[in-house]
Every structure is written in structure tokens, then in C-alpha cells.
Amino acid sequence: MKVLLVGDGAREHAMAEALANSAEGYRVFALSSYVNPGIREAVLRTGGDYVTGNINSRDEVKRAISRFNPDFGVIGPEDPLFYGVADEFRANGIPVVGPNKAAAEIERSKVWMRSLMWKYNIEGRLRYKAFSSIEEASKFILEYQGSVAVKPSEQVGGKGVKVVADIQAYLSKEKRRALSKSVNEIGSLVKNEIKIIIEERVDGPEYTLHVLTDGQTFLPLPLAQDYKHAYQDGIGPETGGMGSISGPGHLLPFINQEEYQGTLDIIKKTADAIRTEAGESYKGFISGQMMLTELWGPTVIEFYSRMGDPETTAIIPRIDSDFGYLLQLTAEEKLSKATLSVKEEGAVVKAVAPLGYPLRRDLATGKEIQLDLKAMRERGCNVYFGSIAYEGGKLITRGSRALELVSLGEFQEASNRLDGCVKMISANTELVFRRDIGKSLRDQIEKAEIVRYSYRNRIKRDALGVSADWAPNGGLW
């Protein structure tokens, strides 16, 4: 069978490798905006073909479908979904892993997502206000007395989120004044009329549950946690993700089976609500970016309409089942036939980026990287290629996270192993990565225990989701 993969990052490399390694004997074809070395290897190994072009263009996707005549498709990133690329596959009679444009709105628009959760009374929802006026949003921040999170109203690659908490009252005015000044910057990231969404602030350990669905069957994957901030100990600007962890088993050390099941229930209810609103079943990945909070327990921060990156490179290597075949079953709406076997051992992922990422991508672009893949694999590290192009036999950076290194095993040992493997990478620039990923989870475990005690008390008092200073319909009193 022939499969057409759309996308060009480390997530898509991991998917291409899984397809190439499948016992089903797939021939892998790819459409990317540049030649990813890892995807290229999978394409060549399986006798497929590779074309470059605009992955968000339905016309270019249609040409690739006509050229390759695939049996099914897999769409990796979110932007092609927002532009209706999955619709193009289905319009040409090709089953595909990825929701249609209408269903992908669950990720593209935070306002639509929040309003949907309130309309259908889905657990784990946060109260919010949406603003098309930057001035009105700034005024609200200065006047409202509670803790808030301020976000761009649509998906902008993980950028722009600001949080203010009133832990020290005497800092309140200064914090709010600084946050209100950030609203212009956040609003400038958004193209739509509604610019800003302000949500009630919650706190707790974060995690992600990715679920494959063909519209009827739901197949939950192992949990993962993304490390979004650029620098050690969770400081610095937010990025697309500087690393991740997954495991052991289906869980994480700070999330229990009951919370896993509660999260899955939220995702299922959301998919059902999308089907009602969009008029069609949700097919593909639907992923809950969650936080364990005292307000609800499992609480939705946002949804993905695809697999997260770098969570993907922590999850797929831990799956013993034929992941490529799971993708085929999803595309063909036969997921009820699937079985999922997961390694008990965990995984740690560390992203490596050129100096300049994420704030000065111009400085991080056009650098040459060299690495000893064989030696790294012998040491217990696998490598997935991200924002790096194969050009004239060289590996040239494109301004974002260039490599994602993954190692399986106990978290501390795997993290140390990755640090050693990073030393096997050379470049004509400084490389940046986080050493702390996976090395100390004690704080998160302790925080989860505190949060768990609090939300269980709310359950006893029938007070889940109750917040005194926010109105029950999602707005303010």
C-alpha cells in the first residue's frame, strides 16, 4: 500500500519511520516544505517518492494525490488541517488521518473551544472572556481582581501566553500594568477579529493525552508531558517544546489511572460535541493539553487536532504495536480492530536548537549541523530530524528546533544518556538544549498530591468547577 505523509518536522519523521518499519510493507510518499533527512530516509527505503511544496495548499496536495495515487494519507501538523487539506484528501476519495477543517477549529480557535465546552457542559472547562478590542482587554486586566491567563484567541504555535497571579497583593498593580502592555503584542499575533481571550488562572502539573479516533472508536495513547519554556527550570520564553517525557506504562508519575480515564471522558465528550456542531464525525488525533487542578481535577488548557511535537517522539518509540497499521485503521474507519501494546519503560526527549531560537530565528537559520548517528544509537539515543533540511548532502538549520533526541528507560538515566549524545553533535554555531528534562519530578509529584486532595474535597462538597468570582455561564458577574 502507498501512504502520502504531509508535513516536515520531527513528528512527521517519527510517523514516517513507523510507517516504513510496519509489517504491512507501506511505500512512503511525502509532501514537505523542505527535504527532511529522516523522512527522506523512510521514503528511499520503501521505494516511495518525495516532493516539496506548500503543505497548506489544497491545490498542491491535490497534485501530490494525483501524482502518487496513495491508498491513504497522514497529516502531521495543524496548519494544513486549518486550511482544509484533510478535506482535499476525502474529496478525492482518499481516506486520511486528520480532521476536516470544521472539526480542526477545536485547536485553531480557543474561543470556539471554550464556548463549545460551556455549551455542552463538558467537565474541565475554564471561564473566559473574549475581546476584539485591545483597549477593552487592557482595561479588563487593570480592573479585574483575580488571577488570569491572557492568550491569543487562535493557535499561533505556542506563543503569546501570559499569566498573572496575585500571590503578593502589593505587586498587583505593577503586574497588571505590565500585563496590559503585553496585550498589544499578543493581539498582533492574531489575524481574526477576536484578538484576545482571558481565562481564569489555574495551577498544577500539565500533561497531554493523545487519542486516535475514526469517528466511532477511541484509542487513547500513553500520556506525555511537554517542556515548553526555553531554559532550565521552566523559565524563559515559550517555545514549541524543548523536550518531553512519557511513561511509565500509560501514565505519568504524577497522574493516576482515575485521572487518565477522566481525561479520556472529557476528550470523548468534546469529540461528540464537535460532531454535533460541525455535522460530521471527528477522525484523526484529538489531543487534550491538560492540567491537574484543584478546580476540576483534569482541566483543559487547550486541544490539539493532531499529535503534539515533541510529545510524538516520546510516545511512538514506546508503542510495541504496529503504529503505521494503527494509522491505516484510523484512516479507513476500522479502528475497532486495533490493539495497543505499550512498553512499560518511559522515554525522555530533548530538543536541540541553534542559538537564536526562539526569539531570533534569523540567527538560528542557515547553520550546518553534523552528527554521528551510528554512535548515538549505540549509546541508546535515537534522533528525529526537525527544522533541518537536507541540502547538497549537508544538514542545514531552518531556525527552529533542529533535532529531537529520545532515549528509553528510567527518566534520570535516560536524561543523562541524552546529555552525552548531545556532545556527539557539532555545528558552526552554539547549540541550546535543556539538561533538566526528566531529571527531577519530585516537585510535580508533590504538587499533584496537593491538588488531588483539594479537588477530591470539592467532589465531596459537590463543588467541582465552582469559582466565586466568575459567572457560571463562562463570563464575569
From TrEMBL:
Listed SMART domains: GARS_A, GARS_C
Class of this enzyme: ligase
SUPFAM superfamilies with a match to the protein in the record: Glutathione synthetase ATP-binding domain-like, PreATP-grasp domain, Rudiment single hybrid motif
Ranges where the ATP-grasp domain occurs: 114-332
InterPro entries according to UniProt: ATP-grasp, ATP_grasp_subdomain_1, PreATP-grasp_dom_sf, PRibGlycinamid_synth_ATP-grasp, PRibGlycinamide_synth, PRibGlycinamide_synth_C-dom, PRibGlycinamide_synth_C_sf, PRibGlycinamide_synth_N
Entry keyword set: ATP-binding, Ligase, Nucleotide-binding, Purine biosynthesis
UniProt-listed Pfam families: GARS_A (PF01071), GARS_C (PF02843), GARS_N (PF02844)
PROSITE patterns: ATP_GRASP
One of the GO BP terms on file: 'de novo' IMP biosynthetic process
EC number(s) given by UniProt: 6.3.4.13
Entry GO MF terms: ATP binding; metal ion binding; phosphoribosylamine-glycine ligase activity
Superkingdom per UniProt: Archaea
Pathway: Purine metabolism; IMP biosynthesis via de novo pathway; N(1)-(5-phospho-D-ribosyl)glycinamide from 5-phospho-alpha-D-ribose 1-diphosphate: step 2/2
Family according to the record: Belongs to the GARS family.
Protein's recorded name: phosphoribosylamine--glycine ligase
